[in-house]
Amino acid sequence: MLGQASTVYMSNSNLYLASSIYDTEKSEPYQDGVYTVTTYLNKQTTQINCIALADGVLTVSADCVIDGGLLNQFSLDEYEGNLRLVVTKSNYGYSVYRDEEKDIEASKPNEDIVDTNALYILDPSLRTIGSIEGLAADERIYSARFAGDVGYMVTYKQVDPLFAMDLSDPTAPKITGELKIPGFSTYLHPYGVGKLFGLGFEAGDNVTEGIKLSMFDVGDPYNVSEITRSGVDADYSPATYNHKAVLIDVDKNLIGFVGTNYGDAVKYQQDRYFLYGYEEGQGFVLKSALELSGLDDGYYGGSANTRGLYVGDYLYVVSAYHLDVFDMNTLEAVQRIRIRELPDYSDIMPLATGSAIME
What we know:
Structural class: mainly beta
Helix content: under 10%
Number of strands: 27
Distance between the termini: 57 Å
Order of helices and strands: EEEEEEEEEEEEEEEEEEEEEEEEEEE
Shape: globular
Largest sheet: 7 strands, antiparallel
Strand content: over 45%
């Protein structure tokens, strides 16, 4: 195979490689008074290649092109031989008006074209056998998750519509529930029977206002509701855009991720590892906001690289420069190790003569 893949998804039977294709459609010029008008439509499509894995032999078994773009690997899911996927159709159209006599031209956007979203179900030959199109006009997908016969999708512009989709009949998928709440979730994770965890942002007037946790009741896909929500005392977390930065164990009732507080302008950023649990009737319970190494150094190494995992009764939080070990029962630090020395940027970016220095 030649080319590249922007999204990779793998089931037990197949490897799917998806790549975005951007193209511009151009109309034949036509006259509008003194102007020669040409219309353009910038479109995004997605090329999907399926590589079968039977008996350890890699075989390109099918391919297709779907209108729209995928968000990430959670936008795809193989179930009972069919591939389900959700896409955002984000097209942009405009017209160019040219006055040949005066040799001038101007462009005008086509405001009738707005973002829409769609669900497609493809058979093993990657032919569409079921679809829902035209979802959430003027919004785009921020997270998606499939769980058996049900799919979930969050779109966003001003409020957070969580869509529940019945996929039990792959030839006739349908929307079963739609819940609109402020903000939006950028990551969804099944949390036990009938519950769906969401991590994302509080938002208002198209501006994000802080990190939030949500727990949804999805036991009845026809009546989806938000059980509880909780704000997080952090200004930033890589968990909002990278699922690998989230530690979730439903059996241990554990939700973990790193968060950063920037403080005032003269202080270094402060990273903590947040551990939450979920209790019926109480909602999210903050078990601890663990202090991490690096505060004394004035630099932690960037929380984007920080990951948490547990082995036995110990929680390990590792970044590019430090390793912190905590007792899972007491949440007390039992070991702190510097993996490598912090970088010294003073020789790379020396202060210019006369620069102001903040104490």
